[in-house]
Amino acid sequence: MIFELIAAALPLAVVAILLVGLLWPATRAMPLAWIVALVVGFVVWNNPPAYLAGSSIVGVMTALEILWIVFGALVLLYTLMQAGAFDRINQGFAAVSDDRRVQIVLLAFFLATFIEGAAGFGTPAAVVAPLLLALGFPALAAVIAALIGHIIAVTYGAVGTPIIVGIETPLEVYEGAIEADGGMTVVEYSQNVAAWAATYHALSGFVMPLFAVGMVVYFFGPREERSIRPALEVAPLCLFAGVAFAVPYWISAWFITAEFPALIGSMVGGAITVAVLQAGYLLPDDEWDFPPREEWPDHWVGTIEPGSDGVNAADGATDGPQMSLLKAWSPYIILIVLLVITRVIDPISEFLTDPDVGVQIGDVSLGIVILWDPILGYEALGADIAWMNVPGFWLIVSAIIAIAIFGLDGDEVKAAWYEAGEKLVSPFIALIFVIAMVQVMIQSGGAPGAPEYAVINDSPASMIELLAIATANATGPIYPALAASIGALAAVMVGSNTVSNITFGGFQFTAAHELELPSQIVVGAQATGGAIGNLVAIHNVVAALATVGLVGQEGRVIRLNLIPLFYYAVLVGIWTLLFVYVMPDVLPEVFDIY
């Protein structure tokens, strides 16, 4: 069994060595890792070439669904940028106070979590860091604050993609087990996972505004007066902001859907916090600022001078009549309304997910849902893209409506769509191959004649399941404490909460079953861990540093961000242990679950 375990881990080891160890770009590393997975599937799991091709097709279709969502998110974001609406949103936050600590709360927390909920996939830090730089922040401080500030929202990034695709997709192979044990569909189960993840985040992440402020004032304040005291002076504001975000965020995850927590938390919490500040409450008595520019170490600043662009952002100066904040926010308000309507009204939801509405060509259905089942004749393999139901379609609709709202001309529309498409080139290659690799690993046990190195639900275990069983047996009862860290490690390797969930969602589900633990709680910890790993994911760090002209300082960012990563991973591990072993005796009606 040792040989089989090593073989099963080999594709993931290749990813870790090439991406993290040798710092290869994902566009080079992932195709090689996919090839390694194919070799292991063929040689060790006896998968026929046609079955391996079918598994890869499942991965490609999953990747295309993700890319459709990301493209829509980027089109809407860049449409707002072309219209000047995004600048207006930024001004609305920045004009509240010149105090750097307040600006961190409003921009690095609320604006970054909003962008994460709307676009995800590394966009928040890459957008917010240059905004902070333009306000006069040191480049390194801007990147640190933006990365820390958005983490609580990552599980629901790009309108819920890490849950809608990241959790639902790998768990479809366990549909029978989920229905038999819990009486739920995979979609319902995934929504419950999202709700538990929101619980972990709310309990652990509401202090992230204070954490971001503390990191900046301690490491970027006057060297002779290095202290967290300036952060404690605004602790009431930071904690108020964290709670104002966490409450609507948590309610949204439990009682609406996994698509809205980050959007609703940031919009509602941000509006409440801004209103409180504008009323004169929670503002610090004395303004805090960075040391004089001439005292900054060289590694704080890159090729772009702080304050060299957008220096009037804080006072909201514009050349013409100022756009109202309601108008600037309106496309995202429309998006939320559209998504609620298409999910809450059953006839609409059922129509948008009906694979029979379309043309059937062999085993492929082309219509409202693109369905291929079975793939290449294998009953174990099937995939679909409900392209009108996933958020990508409604993001595009909202972007088209925004064109009319803002009166954009053809050149502006073309620029927004072109930039969105351009940003997809590298993710397209990386996602196609990494998810194809993961699907080869996930589906390997379902091939005809697959060896029974272990058995799950009367079927041979896949590569992922074999690794999960071995991990569960090795760690035993302490496994729940490690679940979030496993998700974080995967996100560090692949740079994405969604891909972390696709890779290890089934792993965590299998491990929980092996140990007879409540799987919703354990998989919820995975979804949380996949988010916090983004603090030091090399892809996100490089992208953020590039926007402020500071490429080459990745090591400094990662070392500093290990502090909040350690805090978050340890605390979520403790909460998971409590939810699994203690709370079922205290509140059995809530915690005694499947």
Could you walk me through the main structural features you see in this protein, from its secondary elements to its overall organization?
The protein starts with a helix and ends with a helix. Strand 5 (455-456) and strand 6 (459-460) form a beta hairpin. Helix content is 68%, strand content 3%. Strands 1-2-3-4 form a four-stranded antiparallel beta sheet, covered by helices on one side. It has a two-stranded antiparallel sheet with strand order 5-6. Residues 309-320 have low confidence and may be disordered. 54% of the residues are buried. It has 594 residues and is mainly alpha-helical.
Radius of gyration: 23 Å
H/I helix tally: 27
Our estimate of the beta-strand percent is under 5%
The average pLDDT is 89
Give the overall form. Answer: globular
Biggest β-sheet strands, sense, barrel: 4 strands, antiparallel
Low-confidence parts: 309-320
Strand order of the largest sheet: 1-2-3-4
Determine the structural class based on helices, strands and strand pairing: mainly alpha
Helix share, percent: 55-70%
How many extended strands?
Answer: 6
What distance separates the N and C termini? 30 Å
